[in-house]
């Protein structure tokens, strides 16, 4: 169980905190915009679904993982892009919904 928690939190930290930081520091110009769009529309939703499925395997102990994922997204974007930008709240709510839905579906599959 501890291994699952550390692995999941490591993936969340790497994707939601590390990738925005790397995109801001390493990429300039229009390429940075393309990378950010890929993060917001491909990588981050997949991370939310992955962490939701992982949380669904151990629902009673890992129900909080989708919330941590959404909060880490907010922290990463507010630190790297624009602090306090309210548009990122919508993305965080969508990622929370995706993670929660994936968690409930995988819990339903695993606990048949």
Explain what this protein looks like in three dimensions:
Helix content is 87%, strand content 0%. It has five helices and no strands. The chain has helices at residues 2-26, 30-57, 59-62, 65-80, 87-110. The longest helix is centred in the middle third of the chain and has 28 residues, at 30-57. 29% of the residues are buried. The model has no long low-confidence stretch (mean pLDDT 91).
Task: Please tag this protein with its features.
single chain; 112 residues; 87% helix
Terminus-to-terminus distance? 21 Å
Q: What is the C-alpha radius of gyration, as a whole number of Å? A: 14 Å
| Tally of separate helices | 5
Provide the β-strand percentage band: under 5%
Order of helices and strands: HHHHH
Oligomer: single chain
Helix content: over 70%
Mean pLDDT: 91
Residue windows where pLDDT falls under 50 for at least 5 positions: none
The tally of beta strands, per DSSP, is: 0
Biggest sheet overview: none
- The class by helix and strand makeup works out as mainly alpha
What gross morphology would you assign?
elongated
List the helices and strands and how they pair.
Elements: H1 2-26, H2 30-57, H3 59-62, H4 65-80, H5 87-110
Helix pairs in contact: 1-2, 1-4, 2-4, 2-5, 4-5
Question: How would you briefly describe this protein structure?
Answer:
The protein is mainly α and 112 residues long. The protein is built from five helices and no strands.
């Amino acid at each position: 169980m501890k291994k699952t928690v550390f692995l999941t939190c490591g993936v969340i930290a790497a994707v939601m905190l590390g990738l925005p930081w790397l995109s801001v520091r390493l990429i300039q110009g229009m390429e940075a915009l393309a990378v950010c769009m890929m993060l917001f529309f491909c990588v981050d939703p997949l991370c939310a679904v992955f962490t939701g499925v992982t949380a669904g395997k151990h629902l009673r102990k890992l129900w909080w993982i989708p919330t941590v994922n959404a909060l880490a997204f907010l922290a990463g974007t507010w630190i790297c892009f624009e602090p306090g930008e309210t548009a990122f709240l919508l993305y965080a709510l969508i990622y929370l919904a995706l993670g929660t839905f994936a968690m409930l579906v995988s819990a339903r599959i695993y606990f048949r």
